[in-house]
Amino acid sequence: MPQFLRPYRNVVIPFALILVSSLVWISNTKVEKERNLIDRSVVFLSTPIVRAITASADFVSESWRNYVWFVGLRRQHDGAIFRIQALENELNRLEEYRRENGRLREILDFRDRDSEESFTTGYVVAKVVGMGGGAFARTIHLDRGYGDGIRQGMPVVTPAGVVGRVVKARGGYAEVALVLDPNNAVPVRIQRTRAQGILEGAGSEICRIKYVSRASDVVKGDRVVTSGLAGVFPGGLVVGTVDRVRKKAGTVTQEVLVRPSVDFRRLPDEVLVVTQVFQQASLGEEDVSKVDLQTSNPKKGVDGGHQ
Amino acid sequence: MRQSAFYVGLVLLCIFLQMTLIPRILVSSMQPDLAFLVVLYLGLHRSSGTSTVTVVISGYLADLFSGLPSGTFLLIYLVCFYVVGIFRRVLYSRGILFSIVLCGGLSLFYVLFLAILASLGSGERFLTQGLYFRGMIPFGLLNMLSVFPIFRLCRWLERYAGPQSSSPMRSMRHGLIR
């Protein structure tokens, strides 16, 4: 340090460090830069440690639950819950098809411009190895990454519903922004009335649908599903149920608060990362279009708005 | 140097625990920031010269595993560390009660700072960052509850890692700090 600054080093050093860290933050705010060699090395070296801690915690909690707390009953219960959720999801998909069919029957030869439907054809099963390190982070870490075909923007689901979207994919590791994350945007619709909107995180355990017309009929308990717009999330996946509806005076839209169907306080050990979606864009013309999420580039803002 | 390495290891352990064990233990989705508490300990009980490097590394590690834009926790930890340093000089007390009260106040400051950064980053208005405002009080309480075990752990670590001549109390006794 220059001689003339030495008497002021107690002020100069803190000021310089805070300035540098501010510049680092500003440079990473809009566009998250690729991780450098040091970052990748730290994450690479820490992944086995995180896995080991998670495995130890799993072992202890599973031992407790399976052998001390009702021998075997817990496993049966978990299996039954998993199966019920899977069946509910399937039932919901069938409900979507039934409604679509009924609507098509009603309008007969009227071409339906809004009958997009899609279904998942490729997925990777990934284990949840940790949650975001920050107190307010709404991310989870998966043990699968770029090398397993996972790419940025891919949707992550469980039988209970939508979990979130991949925001970072590295060699053997991926980071997922949950639907609770305020920066995550998912196009959704109200299943009963087909009112569309954009869902984003709004609190510790609640989400909010924006841009729902004030005239749309939305009531508490309505089921919310993905709309399939933007081609990233397959249509018809359960997101949650309407918890509250707020209509503020002087606005053309209403705010719809949604309670997610996935219990984020107790995520399952494994999730599915959707890698390929078949999407039926419009009837009559090109019937089925294949959307390979490994090569497609989701649009920023909707389905890709996480910073 | 040895103590700094131990503290970096402790911060890393805290981050790993926050990623793995703590979400399983706590019923609420809110959790304390253990690495932040280590930074507070450093600000209260170690000299700023030797601890600054540890705080910078802690911020870097917290950023790496947080999912937020890089530099967020680096900035928050550094600012909190220097704010604690100011409090230490003005109102230094060895009591744990002082540390707990200071931790509560700084936790609120931490959340407000995070909300400001989030609103600047997303371009939305500050008052729309409801997630942070709702979590402010539980976060502060959880941090205050975690002060005692984390500070005890740090003291135990100091004894294990060996003496370091930069303790402000020791420096005060030797008349280095007035």
Any overview of this molecule?
Chain A is α+β, with helices and mostly antiparallel strands. Helices cover 29% and strands 30% of the residues of chain A. Chain A is built from three helices and 13 strands; from the N terminus they run αααβββββββββββββ. A six-stranded antiparallel beta barrel of chain A has the order 1-2-5-4-3-12. The two termini of chain A are 37 Å apart. Chain B has 178 residues and is an all-alpha fold. Chain B has eight helices and no strands. Chain B is globular, with a radius of gyration of 16 Å. Residues 170-178 of chain B have low confidence and may be disordered. At the A-B interface, helix 1, helix 2 and strand 1 of A face helix 1, helix 2, helix 4, helix 5 and helix 6 of B.
- Helical segment tally of chain B? 8
| Low-confidence regions of chain B | 170-178
Number of helices of chain A: 3
**Range of strand content of chain B:** under 5%
Structural class of chain A: alpha+beta
Helix/strand order of chain A: HHHEEEEEEEEEEEEE
Low-pLDDT runs of chain A: 107-118, 281-290, 296-307
What overall form of chain A do the CA principal axes indicate? globular
Sequence of strands across the biggest β-sheet of chain A: 1-2-5-4-3-12
> Tally of extended strands of chain B?
0
Order of helices and strands of chain B: HHHHHHHH
Q: Tell me the Rg of chain A in angstroms.
A: 23 Å
Terminus-to-terminus distance of chain B: 25 Å
What share of the residues of chain A does DSSP label as strand, in percent?
Answer: 25-35%
Give me the oligomer status. Answer: heterodimer
Q: Taking all residues together, what is the mean pLDDT of chain B? A: 80
Distance between the termini of chain A: 37 Å
Backbone structural class of chain B:
mainly alpha
Average of pLDDT of chain A: 76
Please state the CA-atom Rg of chain B, rounded to the nearest Å: 16 Å
The major sheet of chain B is characterized as:
none
What is the element layout, followed by pairings?
The complex is a heterodimer of chains A (307) and B (178).
Chain A: H1 9-29, H2 37-68, H3 73-107, E1 117-131, E2 139-142, E3 155-158, E4 161-170, E5 173-178, E6 186-190, E7 196-201, E8 207-213, E9 223-226, E10 238-246, E11 253-260, E12 270-280, E13 289-292
Antiparallel strand pairs in A: 1-2, 1-12, 2-5, 3-4, 3-12, 4-5, 6-7, 6-9, 7-8, 8-11, 9-10, 10-11, 12-13
Chain B: H1 2-19, H2 21-25, H3 34-45, H4 48-64, H5 72-91, H6 96-122, H7 130-161, H8 168-173
Helix pairs in contact in B: 1-4, 1-7, 3-4, 3-5, 3-7, 4-5, 5-6, 6-7
